[in-house]
């Protein structure tokens, strides 16, 4: 549930920031008549994203066991790729996203009304499709299907409240710090999703080593304890992982965390020769 909440909060806030920037630009430029076009594009993006998530669940439920495991493995690996790209993109684009969106919306206004709706749609649909894919991948290991749905719904609602507060200037949030901490947690979540994908590939018979355990933490992690459920749901930490699962987790998490936490150095312009 907490992993789904984090996904909903992070992705939801990105989409909310985009919408708030577009709305603020139209309001400040005295073009309120174009606001319904923005909401039309946003509503279409949300509807397609929900439909995409429902399609993933519907497809997985109707496959045979081995094919279902393979389908879930592909979804998990794809989600890992998307979340990795997303956190690094936001790390570099967070500071210039407002100016870029305003410039694109200005161009869309010159083209026509339909272009404004398309602009809003394209700005939100990427976040929506990523959210659906990440939610589907993270929910595969959940014992109850209701908990991830509640978690992601609460995360999206929280992001909407924060976005509205930022738009109304009622609250101040250090977005750079926010995206850094949530990005750090999402790297660990993505590592767990990748680990689950590798396990699915082993279950489907694509990868070997299903019975080769790396270690056994059954005596340490009580299956009925709350912390065991939290670790399993958040980071997919299981008592008896396979060697290949642990290797895949380490190969992904260690270099990605290193690159993500590495400070960004600004390029210094060369001094002219005297």
Automatic annotation (TrEMBL):
Keyword Transmembrane in record: yes
UniProt keyword annotation of Translocase present: no
PANTHER family reported in the protein's UniProt record: IRON TRANSPORTER FTH1, PLASMA MEMBRANE IRON PERMEASE
Compartment annotation: Membrane
Parts of the chain that traverse the membrane: 6-25, 37-58, 70-88, 108-125, 145-166, 178-198, 243-261
Similarity remark: Belongs to the oxidase-dependent Fe transporter (OFeT) (TC 9.A.10.1) family.
Biological source species: Nonomuraea mangrovi
Recorded superkingdom: Bacteria
Membrane topology: Multi-pass membrane protein
Stated name of the protein: Iron uptake transporter permease EfeU
Keywords: Membrane, Transmembrane, Transmembrane helix
NCBIfam families for this protein: EfeU
């Amino acid at each position: 549930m907490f992993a789904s909440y984090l996904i909903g909060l992070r992705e939801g806030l990105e989409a909310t920031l985009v919408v708030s920037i577009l709305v603020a630009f139209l309001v400040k430029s005295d073009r309120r008549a174009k606001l319904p076009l923005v909401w039309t594009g946003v509503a279409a993006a949300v509807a397609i994203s929900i439909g995409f998530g429902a399609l993933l669940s519907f497809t997985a439920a109707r496959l045979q066991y081995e094919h279902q495991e393979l389908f879930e493995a592909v979804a998990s690996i794809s989600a890992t790729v998307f979340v990795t790209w997303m956190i690094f993109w936001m790390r570099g684009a967070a500071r210039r996203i407002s100016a870029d969106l305003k410039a694109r919306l200005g161009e869309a206004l010159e083209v026509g009304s339909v272009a404004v709706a398309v602009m809003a749609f394209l700005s939100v649909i990427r976040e929506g499709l990523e959210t659906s894919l990440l939610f589907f991948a993270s929910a595969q290991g959940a014992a109850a299907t209701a908990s991830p749905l509640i978690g992601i719904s609460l995360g999206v609602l929280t992001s909407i409240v924060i976005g509205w507060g930022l738009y109304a200037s009622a609250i101040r949030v250090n977005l750079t710090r926010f995206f850094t901490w949530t990005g750090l947690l999402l790297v660990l979540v993505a590592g767990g999703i990748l680990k689950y994908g590798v396990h699915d590939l082993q279950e489907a018979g694509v990868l070997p080593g299903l019975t080769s355990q790396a270690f056994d933490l059954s005596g340490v992690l009580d299956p009925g304890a709350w912390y065991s459920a939290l670790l399993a749901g958040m980071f997919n930490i299981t008592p008896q992982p396979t060697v290949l699962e642990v290797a895949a987790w380490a190969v992904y998490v260690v270099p990605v965390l290193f690159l993500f936490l590495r400070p960004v150095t600004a390029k210094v312009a060369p001094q002219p020769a005297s």
